[in-house]
Amino acid sequence: MKPIKIGNIVIENPVILAPMCGVTDAPYRHEVAKFGCGYTVSEMIASRAALLDLKNANQKAQRGEFEKVMAVQIAGFEADVMAEVAKKIADQGADIIDINFGCPVKKVVNGMAGSALMKHEDLATKIMESVVKAVSIPVTVKMRKGWNEENQNAAKLAKIAEDVGVKMVTIHGRTRAQLYDGKADWEFIRSVCDSVKIPVIVNGDIKNGQDARCAMEISGANGVMIGRATYGKPWLISQIIDELCGREVKIEPCAKGKWQIIASHMEGIAELYGKQAGVGIARKHLSWYSSGLCGSSEYRGRINQCNDFDEVMRMTGEFWGI
Ligand SMILES: Cc1cc2nc3c(=O)[nH]c(=O)nc-3n(C[C@H](O)[C@H](O)[C@H](O)COP(=O)(O)O)c2cc1C
């Protein structure tokens, strides 16, 4: 695994935590970064909404204490609004601005944002140009293969991105039409790597070190981005880094170690959102942490019926034998 350069920023081990709405908030990124993940991306921030509700945008763009290089992702379809939001976020200390051309969600693409922009190359170009011009930090783009099977223009759009000053592209190896169906196409990403000189990151269905190695070999990409496989396993990315660097892979934390991670993660959630608003987010992560363990479905049933943060934590301590 070789370091990559995103503009003037060097990432020693390009194994990147994917942006995931409702998951990769500051408390979670903080835990993942503690394990040595050197590059994390925030949840997407809807640009127009961000101008109206700065508190929510600031919450999403907040840096976890251990985060090294942190990108904040913005979505939208109005170039001037996106440029304004990018500038605000850069002024608040983000290292990188990532633009979302990949979100498949209906309410996002109906507003012409996310992956819908892959159908509108002129508008996508204007957005990239405006954001690059607005900030002095590097700008990156995350996209899919294309809109659908007949329109797979990621290689073309990546070249346009490079030409307007974007410093890295990440490709999720599915089209928008696929949503999350089928298997991510790592082979396709080779065509993107062939079309640009900036770093290309392969994303989709990478669950472990072996997948990461395979995805890089098949695609020719310079690094990997991992999303869902990290659910309940903030240590996974560091294990993948170990494996790709040919080092001995650190073993999974023991139950006591996991409890310490969980306690710190939950403390972060309570601090960021408050206990009342944070309990739903806490329960989601707690369910993932318990996945596959003996008695976990009964535990999940109980916490999912409880709206009191402290009581959920009491049940969690009991489940983990604390
Ligand atoms: C719950 C969830 C939320 C997501 N939110 C975002 C987002 O805010 N921005 C984005 O670019 N991609 C988002 N994605 C897509 C992921 O970043 C990633 O591209 C996708 O999950 C495929 O990678 P994986 O197979 O490693 O999970 C999201 C995915 C999930 C499952």
From TrEMBL:
Entry EC number(s): 1.3.1.-
Reactions performed catalytically: a 5,6-dihydrouridine in tRNA + NADP(+) = a uridine in tRNA + NADPH + H(+); a 5,6-dihydrouridine in tRNA + NAD(+) = a uridine in tRNA + NADH + H(+)
Coiled-coil intervals, chain numbering: none
Essential cofactor(s): FMN
InterPro entries: Aldolase_TIM, DUS-like_FMN-bd, DUS_fam, DusB-like, tRNA-dHydroUridine_Synthase_C, tRNA_hU_synthase_CS
Gene Ontology terms for molecular function: flavin adenine dinucleotide binding; tRNA binding; tRNA dihydrouridine synthase activity
Top-level class of the enzyme under EC nomenclature: oxidoreductase
Residues the entry annotates as binding FMN: Q73, K142, H172, G227, R228
PANTHER family found in the cross-reference section: TRNA-DIHYDROURIDINE(47) SYNTHASE [NAD(P)(+)]-LIKE (PTHR45846:SF1)
Family, per entry: Belongs to the dus family.
Function: Catalyzes the synthesis of 5,6-dihydrouridine (D), a modified base found in the D-loop of most tRNAs, via the reduction of the C5-C6 double bond in target uridines.
UniProt name for this protein: tRNA-dihydrouridine synthase
